[in-house]
Amino acid sequence: MTTLMMKFRSSPFLEHRPSLCSYCLKPVGGLLFHHKDRWYAACSKEHLLKIKKQIITGKRNTLKAPMINNSAVIDAVSSCKDIYTKLAKENKSYVIHEWKKDDRVRLFHQAIKEYLVVCTEQADQGFSLEDDG
Ligand SMILES: [Zn+2]
Question: At 70, is the secondary structure helix, strand, or coil?
Answer without folding.
Answer: helix
